[in-house]
UniProtKB/TrEMBL annotation:
This is Potassium/proton antiporter. It comes from Salibacterium salarium. InterPro entries: Cation/H_exchanger_TM, Na+/solute_symporter_sf, RCK_C, RCK_C_sf. SUPFAM superfamilies: TrkA C-terminal domain-like. The chain crosses the membrane at residues 6-25, 37-57, 63-79, 91-113, 125-143, 192-211, 246-263, 275-292, 298-317, 338-358, 370-390. GO terms for cellular component: plasma membrane. The lineage of its organism: Bacteria, Bacillati, Bacillota, Bacilli, Bacillales.
Amino acid sequence: MFVGGFDIDSFVLLAALLLIVGVMVTKFSSRLGMPSLILFILVGMLIGSDGLGIIYFDNAKQAQLVGIMALVIILFEGGTQTKWSTIRSVIWPSLSLATIGVLITSMLVGLAAKYIVDLTWMESFLLGAIVGSTDAAAVFASLKERNIKTKIASTMEAESGTNDPMAVFLTLVFIELITVNEPNYWLVFGSFFWQMGVGLIMGILLGKIASMSINRINLDSSGLYPIFALSFALLTYSVASLLNASGFLAVYVAALIIGNSELTYRHSIFRFNEGFAWMAQILMFIILGLLASPEQILSPSVIGSGLFLSAVLILIARPIATYLSILGMKYSTKEKLFLSWAGLRGAVPIVLATFAIVADVESGPMIFNVVFFIVLTSALIQGSSISLLSNKLGLSGPKKETPTHSLELISIGKANAEIIEFKTEENTSIVGKSLQDIDFPDSVLISAIVRDDELVTPYGETIIQENDFLYILVSRKEKNKLRHMLKR
């Protein structure tokens, strides 16, 4: 509900201003080394009823809906950008952190909550379950802005993309234990394996269907392909959820499969997803900021409880959970220390906290306020110090290379041809050879070469060098043959 009965034009103006502010805040946050989610939330709190009073919003169910939709979009974008080759080697430690780690963290925080917050045992463990998982939105955003070594970054990505099912499961379990007189314990614990198993299967199945559909359908407009791809993300979440499985896990797995497949209009799909995910993130955190009451969150009781539980989470629960989860696995002490510190909390705990309010848990508002404070503390303290800690521990990777040139990659639908980008490396077989000496498939044409940010016009005697960006026109039927040849 909008104060003063906003008309349509005023609402459109407000939406435009919020998006502009959100984009500017992102630039500002990167300069400060502060996670952008903090500033998005503060914008929401500023324009809310306890701030400037521009917007009054107190509907937890609507905030939950916005949060879930946004998380689906963010998980899908993060999953499509993740290379399977980089996370394959860390999949088991990541899954251990996403299950055993979340369980241990939840229990330790819940135990501490019982003695510091005025809650029952079940309500205390509910609070612990809500803050038990790291947040995909916060982790993906942090990794985009920082150069963390591949092994650690991949572990963080895979953990945050797969730990939502355990957190959601634990949250719903404790809500049921609180609200239902005689819960069926066998059904409750059996549902976890159903959620994980069916979520995984649906993600794989719909991911493969989506990849095949994108490549085989011939749409009249290239702008429809990104929308078509995104529709599969929403479809995957909804189908899995209707089967009482984990929609979040299904979306992330489907995104991994789609992102690691050969796709028509691949770059258009990725760029659209990136922009849309940023918009979803801005909207989600502003809405969650609107839902929060600064007066309640900054009350002495919430600050005291929140600081104590944040300290337990950051300094005790997360480190213990991390060390036990990856015990015996090939991680150095420095890597374990960094993973312990880098367990960022963000939108997921706040969205899960709305579950308690919607379910009419007696202490739901109190739990929401404490969780909100913990998220702010985690994002501010841990998020702002990730780069510093990675540098101190020697875990910073090489600077990410992004070409400063711009060339729109296209698929020529009617002609069944595409222009693809390929970057040569030291061990690429064609490096050091001239174009006329390379046995390309008949349909291949080297359209452009970008070397040291300068355009090189290709001709027969042009020698391919390391770190060249080749833009190659190829028919779709020869694309796989070309890629195989280039990667030999």
